[in-house]
Amino acid sequence: MRDIWIVAENPAWAAVLFAGAKAISSDAKIVAFVNGDEAAAKAAGSYGAAAAFAMPQPADGLWEGYAKPLAEKAKAETPALILVSASKRGRDLAAQVAAILDAPLFTDGKNVTVNGDAVTAQTMIYGGTGIKTATATATTALVTVGAKDYDPAPAGSAPGSVATLPYAATAAKVTGHQARPAASVNLPEAAKVVSVGRGFAEEAELAFARDLAAAIGAEVGCSRPIAEFFKWMPEECYVGISGQVLKPDLYLAVGISGQAQHLFGCRDAKCIVSINKDAECLMNQNADYYIVGDLKEVVPAIIKAAKG
């Protein structure tokens, strides 16, 4: 099989992309590209890459400035597949490279296979309620890959070579930076998540969820209305197709109806538990286990049991 390229937001994501590349083809040569300097490239290539390229972002430039150089290199070297981190910048970069190459792009593709020039992958449709399997035939195809789609590859030998990819300045310039407030949670890395929805009648009732999370060692997330409409929690806490997409061991949804856009963000959890007064709600229908009842009665009972 021809080469597989990985384009990573950071070296840790490179380990996931490298594992994905090996799952797709155990014998393809892998070339790594990473956001950062040559030290980051060396780290990203340490999983067994034949070569690694740094893609440092200039102080006044955008990471998308690498779209044209990356596409030109792909035209010359014709990799079979380019796996890109499914971050905001990664998706933007992947889309631009695909447009320049006139190549197919599978957004958040799963179960990727390559047979000659034919690439097949599964993607979500209809807000995450359906799965589409599609095949594209092209010299090079692109796939964006989530941070937890594959178990990270173990570090191995240093890459065969390390260099810096040329940068092509864009018309847009960065004129300043403003630091975001430090995130109070790191939902994508959490093994357990307690998530709250509109079943909570007022902000003060969120204490039930926080006490439950403390009792079981979980982080607290929420549905979109809690963060965007009521402003009860920061936006980085909301789970869904346009928010956080999680893959925890346990996802405990409390007072969440389970609309399609929310289910997209938690459907890959190993175990989903729902607590809701409505026995017929979508969250219950998509849960592994559910409890029908008033959260103000059910949650304290679970906390008591968890504390022994």
TrEMBL record:
> Which GO molecular function annotation, any one, does this entry have?
electron transfer activity
Which terms are listed as keywords in the entry? FAD, Flavoprotein, Transport
Top-rank taxon: Bacteria
The Swiss-Prot or TrEMBL record lists the needed cofactor(s) as:
FAD
Note the SMART domains from the entry. ETF
Give all residue intervals belonging to the Electron transfer flavoprotein alpha/beta-subunit N-terminal domain.
4-179
- GO BP, sorted A to Z: fatty acid beta-oxidation using acyl-CoA dehydrogenase
Q: Does the keyword RNA-binding apply?
A: no
Note the SUPFAM superfamilies from the entry. Adenine nucleotide alpha hydrolases-like, DHS-like NAD/FAD-binding domain
Q: Which InterPro entries match?
A: DHS-like_NAD/FAD-binding_dom, ETF_a/b_N, ETF_a/FixB, ETF_asu_C, Rossmann-like_a/b/a_fold
> Per its UniProt record, what Pfam families does this chain match?
ETF (PF01012), ETF_alpha (PF00766)
Textual note on the cofactor: Binds 1 FAD per dimer.
Keyword ATP-binding: yes or no? no
What are the binding positions for FAD in this chain?
198, 223-224, 255-262, 276
> What family classification does the UniProt entry report for this protein?
Belongs to the ETF alpha-subunit/FixB family.
Cross-referenced PANTHER family, in alphabetical order?
ELECTRON TRANSFER FLAVOPROTEIN ALPHA (PTHR43153), ELECTRON TRANSFER FLAVOPROTEIN SUBUNIT ALPHA, MITOCHONDRIAL (PTHR43153:SF1)
Protein name in the entry: Electron transfer flavoprotein, alpha subunit
